[in-house]
Amino acid sequence: MHRKHWIFGMAIFSTLIFVLLCLNYAESQSDQVKRGKYLVDAVGACGQCHTPRQGAEMDMSMYLAGHPANAPYPKYEMSMMQRGIFMLTAPTLAAFSLPFGTTFAANLTPDKETGLGEWTEKMFVDTMRTGHHQGDTNNRKLLPPMPIKNAYANMNDEDLKAMWAYLQTIKPVKNEVRPALNRMGRPF
């Protein structure tokens, strides 16, 4: 009879340890997501470019979804340089036209077709480090105004992974952002 009680007690003890470990893991995951939200919203201010605006206010239904697919975008003309104009922005503040061409803020939501849904954590971290799409140096570079070299490339792995963890928790938004255009208006 003692042996049955001992086995039963050990089973309960093991289950309790397992539950506590799971709760601790869930709490640390939650802390990582909270840190990621802080880094995305406050430190990186990602929404300033990646969340389009309607007037002065951010369109939170498009939170971090990038430049809206069918929204107008600015077209820079080289003659503007003579007047001291070096950049134009779209009314959404999510597309930018400069002397080299036009860039569009990307969809950072976890949408599988149009956002980061098919990316891996490694792709994201490598993109922030290298400034190349999907972290592959054979892919195109991310273009200005994305400040890869001076800001995100210097972040530590834990912070970049926290940002990734948070981005995986936000609402996926289907929004096919157009590719960057060269100064002739063609994709790079």
SSE blueprint and pairings:
Elements: H1 2-43, H2 47-50, E1 53-54, E2 57-58, E3 88-89, E4 95-98, E5 101-104, H3 121-130, H4 157-167, E6 181-182
Antiparallel strand pairs: 1-2, 3-4, 4-5, 5-6
Helix pairs in contact: 1-4, 3-4
* Through-space gap between termini: 77 Å
Q: Describe the main β-sheet briefly.
A: 4 strands, antiparallel
- The number of helices is 4
Low-confidence segments: 18-27
Describe this structure in words.
It is a single chain. The chain is an alpha+beta fold and 188 residues long. It has a domain at 52-182. The protein is built from four helices and six strands. The chain has helices spanning 2-43, 47-50, 121-130, 157-167; strands at 53-54, 57-58, 88-89, 95-98, 101-104, 181-182. α3 crosses α4 (157-167).
Main attributes of the structure:
4 helices; single chain; 188 residues; four-stranded antiparallel beta sheet; 36% helix; alpha+beta
